[in-house]
């Protein structure tokens, strides 16, 4: 009987993971290609930034008219995982896809992880409409969709699976989620990178500091700063979201006004460094000293963009914030510049999302396993010192909350 149970489990999730991975990986491939086109067009035609208020209004009006609960974004996935009340609407996929492309096309500051995760979760949950499944299986579908979306958009299958399991953790270990998460993440990554041929950004840490007690001790202040930065990023986004909601009652006007102010900021500063994904700046952070305020500017502009109602993720801006903050800390902390940038890259991400294991594994997938001890300690310390903050207001932080009461 046990053999039949495990055979049924394996066959069911082999097929389910294959299907969800195919959908989420293909959606991410299309999204990344479209996002690359939008970014290149904007950089070649900077006048388009003047139309950011119009783009914001279109996004806000579309979500206001047909978005319904899709406007909750990643928090809707968490709410449904915890409570399983209503199916994730299929409309979430095209809404967040084109909303994010419009945000980047016209010059907003946002990321891509949230888009991929929402598409993956939305597409995976459609299985619930076609076949009768239990609440537990539906949760596994959602976890698989999140794993596939994250893995395929960043090219990190191990981190994608661990992120989904860690981010959607409910305080109780469920072994049945393990195989679907890792299998779906690998399939989605393979579909995106191999079948569709979509390339991902590569980063390099050419020098790893010796594992001496002094060098390891320097991780402590760095990790604390990264954790506080992650908390600041989360609070900044929540602050602007609350501010726009309180001051502007009609939702479509929020991104319109926000877009106008962002366009003015770009015009006054005469710089496009802090809009869009900011990947070129992230790459620079591993190579040469940068202005100390880069991380702060990106934090504020991304919080303002998302708080105003534009669409996109937070993770790539968190990478920007962390890498440039680590770059700035190299003036005071005697560790290699690229190593500090890499530690900040995953450390701030860990602090803002409360996913230290996923962030550690992601760092090793992107930078190499040689830096593992520095990355792991940085993520762990940042996680602790970020407190009860999270960029996801619906995230269940469980026992971590009791530390700070």
Would you give an account of this structure?
One of its GO terms (cellular component) is membrane. It is found in: Membrane. Keywords: Membrane, Transmembrane, Transmembrane helix. The model has no long low-confidence stretch (mean pLDDT 93). The termini are far apart. The chain contains 18 helices and no strands. By secondary structure, it is mainly α. The longest helix is centred in the N-terminal third of the chain and has 43 residues, at 2-44. The protein has two domains: 2-195, Orthogonal Bundle (Clc chloride channel), CATH 1.10.3080.10; 213-404, Clc chloride channel, CATH 1.10.3080.10.
- Low-pLDDT runs of 5+ residues are none
Sheet bearing the most strands, described?
none
SSE series: HHHHHHHHHHHHHHHHHH
The helix tally amounts to 18
What is the count of structural domains? 2
| Overall geometric form | globular
Amount of helix:
55-70%
How much β-strand is present in the residues? under 5%
Radius of gyration: 20 Å
Termini distance? 48 Å
CATH-derived topology of the largest domain: Clc chloride channel
CATH architecture call of the largest domain = Orthogonal Bundle
Average pLDDT reading: 93
Output the CATH homologous superfamily of the largest domain. Clc chloride channel
CATH class of the largest domain: Mainly Alpha
Annotation, overall tally of beta strands: 0
Transmembrane segments: 12-34, 46-64, 140-165, 177-199, 211-234, 255-275, 295-313, 325-346, 366-385
Main location: membrane
Pfam families: Voltage_CLC
Keywords: Membrane, Transmembrane, Transmembrane helix
């Amino acid at each position: 009987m046990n053999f039949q149970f495990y055979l049924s489990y394996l066959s069911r999730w082999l097929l389910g993971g294959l299907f969800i991975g195919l959908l989420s990986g293909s959606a991410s491939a299309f999204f990344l290609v479209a996002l690359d086109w939008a970014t290149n067009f904007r950089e070649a035609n900077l006048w388009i930034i003047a139309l950011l208020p119009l783009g914001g209004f279109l996004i806000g009006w579309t979500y206001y008219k047909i978005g319904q609960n899709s406007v909750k974004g990643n928090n809707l996935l968490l709410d449904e995982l915890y409570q399983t009340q209503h199916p994730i609407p299929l409309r979430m996929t095209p809404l967040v896809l084109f909303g994010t492309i419009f945000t980047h096309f016209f010059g907003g500051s946002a990321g891509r992880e949230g888009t991929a995760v929402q598409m993956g979760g939305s597409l995976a949950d459609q299985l619930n409409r076609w076949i009768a499944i239990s609440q537990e299986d539906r949760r596994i579908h959602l976890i698989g969709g999140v794993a596939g979306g994250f893995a395929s958009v960043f090219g990190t299958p191990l981190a994608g699976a661990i992120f989904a399991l860690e981010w959607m953790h409910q305080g109780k270990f469920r072994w049945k989620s393990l195989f679907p998460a890792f299998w779906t993440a690998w399939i989605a990554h393979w579909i995106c990178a191999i079948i569709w041929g979509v390339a991902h950004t590569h980063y390099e840490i050419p020098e790893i500091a010796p594992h001496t007690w002094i060098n390891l001790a320097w991780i402590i202040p760095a990790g604390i700063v990264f954790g506080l930065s992650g908390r600041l990023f989360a609070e900044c986004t929540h602050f602007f979201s609350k501010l726009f909601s309180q001051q502007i009652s009609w939702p479509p006007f929020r991104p319109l006004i926000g877009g106008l102010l962002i366009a003015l900021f770009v015009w006054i500063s005469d710089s496009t460094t802090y809009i869009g994904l900011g990947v070129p700046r992230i790459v620079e952070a591993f190579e040469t000293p940068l202005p100390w305020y880069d991380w702060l500017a990106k934090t504020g502009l991304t919080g303002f963009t998302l708080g105003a109602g534009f669409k996109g993720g937070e993770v790539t801006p968190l990478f920007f914030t962390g890498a440039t903050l680590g770059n700035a800390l190299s003036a005071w902390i005697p560790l290699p510049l690229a190593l500090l940038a890499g530690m900040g890259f995953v450390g701030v991400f860990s602090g803002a999302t409360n996913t230290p294991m996923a962030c550690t594994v992601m760092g090793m997938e992107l930078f190499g396993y040689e830096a593992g001890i520095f990355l792991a300690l940085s993520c762990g310390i940042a996680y602790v010192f970020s407190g009860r903050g999270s960029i996801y207001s619906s995230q269940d932080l469980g026992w971590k909350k009791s530390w700070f009461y």
